[in-house]
Design brief:
Belongs to the Dus family. Dus1 subfamily. It comes from Blastobotrys adeninivorans (Yeast). InterPro entries: Aldolase_TIM, DUS-like_FMN-bd, tRNA_hU_synthase_CS. Residues 404-443 are annotated as: Disordered. This protein is of the alpha/beta class. Among the domains are: 43-287, Aldolase class I (TIM Barrel), CATH 3.20.20; 296-368. 42% of the residues lie in helices and 12% in strands. The protein is built from 19 helices and 14 strands. The longest helix has 21 residues, at 2-22. It is globular.
Length: 459
């Protein structure tokens, strides 16, 4: 019996030595490292690990997909959020996950840092969904700002603003049980004290970043108006100084970025609509006209080539919308091209290619006879930008700006306004968002703007 035991012991040692000899050292190291969970970064440490981003692509419904994030990063975006994803569907449906967060999403080579945003009203469903993106993003964000009718119907987004207990449970569920950090994006109330209390409540639940959109839930569509930077600043000044906070709203030009940071004291700015109409809005360190207001033909071609190289469902679904937004001022003049885009079906890359080629040809023809200049006014803030260049969108409310003044017409432009040609650089001047927009007969956009720091949410 002793002899048998000794024999078995010898064979056991030999087997162990054989296995260990055949395990590559690097694999063994990886196995050892995998067994040790990485620490979950929080607050300022997470922000530092992301590279201290200053310019952020906002989470948007179906419009901050992978191709758009890649384009935006090329033009100055430091951090990107995914489109808003439905937590229940994401957790339950493999097809929904494939359609909205494909194999290339979150790739460290070209899509990080990245925050994945979910809308939810059930803590367990939110956690189930979030677990699917662990390892493929830097954090998960809870959408508390969507003001659209679909959010009202589904009871999520900004329509959770009155249910503080549920909000706490949603955020805290991820904070205590998810392997990666949770953040949150909120809107403000009409009352700044309630807005501050709301922000503190969200942070107390475990949100590591707080993004504040300086508009109320009712401010959408034609009632969008100006975001109130003063409320954002009030929140910033009355929460712990180590809190990482982002400001969202009123970013139309590159100059607005530093103005917002100075006015609010936040760590970074986030832009949605400003980024959609001009992906170069984040290019704060560049002054050339082509870097700040790229030609639509050049930007459209760059975007299309990215999307075409990654023909996943999300990229193909968003393509038509991005064409319309990049080309918005251009299509107001070249209406025949606008009419051609409308009927194109999702994924018909040949037809989209024809549109890109037509735009390239039209811009080439326009530049033969038109002056490629931007006019910047003295006194009131506005820019006149040629229709063949990417530019912000100013909403019209009965043709009147939020400061009660009507849009300036082309013949009202001050002759002393400085003109910058395509071979020169643009000198910064303060600019802010207005709620008016128009395209003159030659396709040059003009607008009158007001200071968002002074404007109230209802202005």
């Amino acid at each position: 019996m002793n002899r048998l035991t000794a024999l078995l012991s010898r064979h056991s040692r030999l087997f162990k030595m054989t296995v260990e000899a055949n395990v590559p050292e690097k694999v063994g190291e990886k196995m050892s490292q995998a067994a040790i969970p990485k620490p979950k970064l929080q607050g300022r440490d997470l922000y530092e690990a992301m590279g201290r981003p200053k310019t952020i692509v906002a989470p948007m419904v179906d419009q901050s997909e992978l191709a758009w994030r890649i384009l935006s990063r090329r033009h100055g975006a430091d951090l990107c959020y995914t489109p808003m994803l439905h937590a229940r569907l994401f957790g339950e449906s493999a097809q929904y996950r494939r359609d909205n967060f494909g194999d290339d999403d979150g790739d460290p080579k070209f899509d990080r840092p990245l925050v994945v945003q979910f809308c939810a009203n059930d803590p367990d469903e939110l956690l189930r969904a979030a677990k699917h993106v662990v390892g493929r993003c830097d954090a998960v964000d809870l959408n508390l700002g969507c003001p659209q009718g679909i959010a009202r119907k589904g009871h999520y987004g900004a329509f959770l603003m009155e249910d503080w207990d549920l909000i706490y449970r949603l955020i805290n569920k991820l904070h205590t049980e998810l392997e990666i950090p949770v953040t949150a994006k909120i809107r403000i109330f009409d009352d700044r004290e309630k807005s501050l209390a709301y922000a503190k409540h969200v942070l107390s639940a475990g949100a590591q970043f707080l993004t504040v959109h300086g508009r109320t839930r009712e401010m959408k569509g034609q009632k969008t108006g100006l975001a109130d930077w003063s409320v954002i600043k009030y929140i910033r000044d009355n929460i712990p100084p180590e809190t990482v906070m982002f400001a969202n709203g009123n970013i139309l030009y590159q100059e607005d970025i530093n103005r917002c940071l100075e006015a609010t004291g936040t760590d970074a700015i986030m832009s949605a609509e400003g980024n959609l109409y001009n992906p170069a809005v984040f290019n704060i360190n560049k002054t050339h006209i082509d870097d700040r207001f790229p030609r639509v033909d050049v930007m459209l071609r760059e975007y299309f080539e990215i999307a075409k190289s990654m023909p996943c469902n999300a990229n193909l679904s968003a393509m038509k919308t991005h064409f319309f937004k990049i080309l918005r001022p251009f299509l107001a003049v070249h209406t025949d091209i606008r009419n051609q885009i409308g009927p194109i079906r999702k994924g018909n890359l040949e037809e989209f290619e024809k549109i890109v080629e037509q735009v390239e040809q039209r811009v080439k023809e326009v530049l033969v006879t038109e002056q490629d200049i931007i006019v910047e006014g003295n006194g009131e803030y506005y820019k006149e930008i040629p229709h063949w260049r990417c530019q912000p969108y100013f909403r019209v409310v009965n043709g009147v700006a939020s400061n009660g003044k009507k849009r300036k017409s082309e013949d009202e432009v001050d002759e002393s306004s400085k003109r910058v040609n395509a071979s020169g650089d643009i000198t910064d001047s303060p600019t802010v968002e207005a709620s008016t927009q128009g395209v003159s007969t030659n396709g040059v956009t003009t607008a009158v703007a007001v200071d968002p720091v002074q404007a109230s949410p209802s202005s």
